[in-house]
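Record type: monomer structure entry
Structure origin: computed from sequence
Chain ID: A
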Amino acid sequence: MTILLLVDVSVRLYYQKGRRKFERVAVKHEKREKFFYYLVGMGIIPIFYYLLTSRIDTFRLPFPTRVRWLGAGIVFTGDFLFIWSHRALGSNWSPILEIRKEHTLVTNGPYKFIRHPMYAAIFIVGIGITLLSSNWIVALSYMLPVICMYLVRICDEERMMIEQFGNDYRKYIRSTGSLVPKLRA
């Protein structure tokens, strides 16, 4: 579990470092965005606390070993989607809602199937962490900030993309699901 979490943090820090080189064109709710970014980051702290001590073992969930191994596979799957999403976005990625000079609409990689694969990856990792840790304190500390961030920011993010890309983004919305691929008839 530690290795999988370090992969997540390393990928995020790598892309965070590269984002400072770009000129912003539009920024939405910057203080709120930074608050959520740090809140989600703080949600990882109890996971490391769980890994390093036995103090929250009393909050265990009765998952069998095979379910916990399934959780490890789910975390790995989420990490793969997370990295794939970052690679597809490249210089378009930002931890906050902003549009940069020369920002492009990305519709390749996982974005060919869903509009928000990075959020999907974070949710998948959260499900995996829940199963792997089998601890409801760890699960809630990770998932609650992520769910709150998603619910608060997704409408603003979609609106900002429509403002920037207009009908191209509207067409993209019609052809993709938000977190899971659209089923085609």
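Annotation 1: The radius of gyration is 17 Å.
Annotation 2: The mean pLDDT is 88.
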